[in-house]
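Thread: Newbie trying to understand structure tokens

Hi all, I'm a second-year student working on a class project, and my supervisor (Dr. K.) asked me to get a predicted structure for one chain before our next meeting. I've only ever worked with sequences, so writing a 3D structure as a token string is new to me. If someone could post the tokens and maybe explain what I'm looking at, I'd be very grateful. Here's the chain:
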Amino acid sequence: MDGYTSIAYVVVAVTISNVFFPSNFADSLLLTFLGLAVGALARFIGSLILGNFLGDRLGRRKMLLYSIMGFSVFSFLIAFIPTYKSVGFLATAILYALLFMVGLFAGAEYAGGTALSMESIPQEKRMPIGAFVQSGYGVGYFVMLLVAAAVRSYFGPAQNDDLVWRVIFASTIIPGFVALIIRFFSKESPVFEDMEVKKEIEEVPIEGMISQSRILLSTFLMVAGLLLINTVTLSFYPTFLGEIYPKLANTSLDDLYNSYINLVSLVGVWIGGVIAFFIFRRKMTLLAFSIIFLISLFPIYLLVYSGNLIDTLLAFSVQAFIEAAIFSTIPAFLSEVFSKTHRTTSIGFVYNGAAIPASFGISAVIFFSSAKLFETTGTSWLAFLFIGTFLLLIGILYSKESANRANDPINK
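---
Reply by user tm_fold:
Sure, no problem. This is what the structure looks like when written as tokens:
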């Protein structure tokens, strides 16, 4: 649901930049992508409110039931917003307001889903299953791209500015309904049930989170770097590919090519989880994949600008594969480094808090290239990839190992 809805916005960004802003407005695309920052800020607030008062006090399952209802309903409502031509900047305000509400409920999704799943499985299976959980976002991304390609192909270019983006957002209610049914029949995590029996539930979980200051800082830097990379790659590819090859811009082919890239990233996260299963040590796995990503940056940049579409798609696919492999370790790592009494609050704080600066990534790439601080969009893109990778490596090196074969940290 998260991947489907988030990428729905990215996929139609170029289109709606002409829908919610004046047609001659120079910064319309920049301000459209700032909608990601609005959602990211709301996610952070929502993760603290829902995680602190629901996830760590009432249960992971209950929180996820409430969050998916709000998440899907407000996503669906975006399809019915009036345009700038009909109500002026009120349309823009309504868009940002609905993005904020979507983000508020979405803030509980990652933390609640990660805690529930990782607390429900044995330690030795946590890496591959954690990778599978992490791939849920990518699956939503992949399905959304196929839906977008089909909708654009069916309605044609003439309807892009009026109907296509509405149909795409209206479709977000479907995965939301499916997720609600699944969660209704799911069970609470055994770790939380044991906490209830032993009366170990904290009155103010956020206080316990603050006490783990080193872990909080290291994981924040790590996730901020990784999410910045994710924002300026997978979230930017649909727009970036259209800029490099203008004939593809805002077409069903652009969506289709990006679905191929995303499919490769899904394979990357699953293979990363299998490799991590054999290595077992979470920190070592994160470090190894991150160094490979760093080494690949400049060669991939050269391939992207080779002038050959196949080479560009290959470069994006390899990059997405390595990035996804890094992500494969994150659910198990975050679940194990934070105590069970404030796990959803802490994971939500780190993941959604780190998403705030990361959400400015695309806007920053566009701004620094348009302001001529970098010669092209490509050089600006490469610079921010290096920044994200260095933040990721600093966070990993400063962090502690989470895994302990002798005594599973998930129960602490």
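A couple of things are worth pointing out once you decode it. The mean pLDDT is 87. DSSP finds 20 helices and no strands in the chain. Feel free to ask follow-ups in this thread.
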